[in-house]
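User: tokens in, sequence out, please.
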């Protein structure tokens, strides 16, 4: 994904500068890593952003630039929160607390403010609504109310989560309803708010309303005029929609569509991760620990894939009634990846089936369709029926 718009010129300049600075272990190199990482993260290249921030942090530590190191840590916490890597975020925040305590006293308060937003998410993950509200107020006191549509919507989601955690689900739903109609709110942000509405309806045991809202989200995603890419919804949001819809047999088709979207998100993450692993050595040195981190993330996403296939298998039920997947289409518009939910293999355009764990996605925009391959259907039917 190329950097476009207002950031393109700055990114190009930093991309030219970084190889020149490579290996100097200088403050300038550390700052360039931080700035370029922020640009990459802002255009969706989050893994590359994280790797650059990690590199900048290593240099800052080597030079004992403590405040700069804390700034890199704050960026890392934000990046991990955006990717919903909660345990990684928790560990990074604990390490960052120690770093903040090592700063001069006059720098500590400002340094803590850098971590307020990701800490709100951690508090909500821990179910600590009181702390989440305190941190949210501190964030707005430190940085003011941002008035752009996306920031207003995210702030509304945060307030709704806090209200729900305080036992006020109706108030939470009112806040989200107002957020969905914010003027000029991008569609993907509107979809995110709608997914939060689904979660709050589900928590309030309003399952019929939650499923109706989930179908609306799927309709938005499937609208060609929306110009959304496969994987845009996110792994956990798509999974949650699929599991909710799978609870109603009448919604099986919609549930499968949600699981397909979740699989697209997993493959998009793996493609982005692989792209970062290929591109980053051209810009800066990566220590062995970063390659190990990439490998660990790949394993995590492969576990997501396995869970998804299991969910689809349960949903489809009888293999004799599952939709059969055919390979070898000559239609260039037929770009679907076909995944067999029984043998966990991916069908390729040349008619081969590969184990899902061995498949290397070459594109972040690959729509997915689950079903059953011919071999698995024949095996399920038995030799007598097959003959």
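Assistant: Sequence out:
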């Amino acid at each position: 994904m190329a950097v476009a718009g207002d950031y393109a010129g700055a990114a190009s300049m930093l991309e030219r500068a970084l190889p020149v600075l490579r290996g100097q272990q200088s403050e300038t190199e550390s700052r360039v890593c931080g700035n370029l990482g922020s640009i990459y993260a802002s255009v969706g290249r989050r893994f590359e952003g994280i790797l650059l921030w990690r590199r900048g942090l290593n240099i800052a530590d080597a030079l004992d630039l403590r405040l700069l190191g804390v700034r890199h840590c704050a960026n890392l916490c934000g990046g991990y929160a955006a990717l919903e890597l909660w345990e990684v975020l928790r560990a990074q925040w604990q390490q960052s607390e120690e770093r903040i305590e090592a700063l001069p006293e006059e720098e500590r308060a400002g340094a803590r403010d850098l971590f307020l937003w990701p800490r709100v998410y951690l508090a909500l993950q821990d179910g600590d609504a009181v702390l989440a509200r305190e941190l949210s107020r501190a964030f707005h006191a430190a940085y003011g109310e941002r008035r752009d549509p996306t920031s207003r919507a995210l702030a509304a989601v945060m307030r709704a989560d806090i209200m729900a955690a305080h036992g006020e689900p109706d108030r939470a739903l009112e806040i989200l309803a107002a957020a969905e109609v914010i003027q000029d709110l991008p569609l993907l942000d509107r979809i995110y708010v709608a997914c939060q509405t689904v979660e709050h309806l589900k928590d309030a045991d309003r399952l019929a309303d939650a499923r109706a809202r989930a179908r609306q989200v799927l309709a938005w995603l499937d609208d060609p005029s929306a110009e959304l890419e496969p994987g845009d919804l996110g792994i956990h949001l798509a999974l949650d929609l699929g599991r909710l819809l799978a609870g109603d047999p009448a919604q099986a088709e919609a549930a499968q569509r949600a699981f397909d979207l979740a699989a697209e998100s997993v493959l998009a993450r793996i493609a982005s991760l692989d792209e970062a692993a290929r591109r980053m050595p051209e810009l800066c040195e990566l220590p062995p620990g970063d390659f190990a981190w990439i490998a660990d993330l790949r394993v995590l996403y492969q576990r997501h894939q396995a869970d998804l296939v299991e969910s689809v298998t349960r949903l489809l039920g009888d293999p004799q009634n599952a939709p059969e997947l055919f390979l070898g289409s000559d239609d260039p518009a037929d770009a679907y990846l076909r995944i067999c939910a029984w043998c966990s293999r991916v069908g390729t355009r040349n008619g081969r089936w590969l184990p899902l764990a061995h498949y290397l996605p070459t594109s972040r925009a690959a729509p997915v369709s689950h079903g059953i391959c011919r071999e698995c259907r024949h095996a399920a039917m038995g030799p007598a029926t097959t003959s």
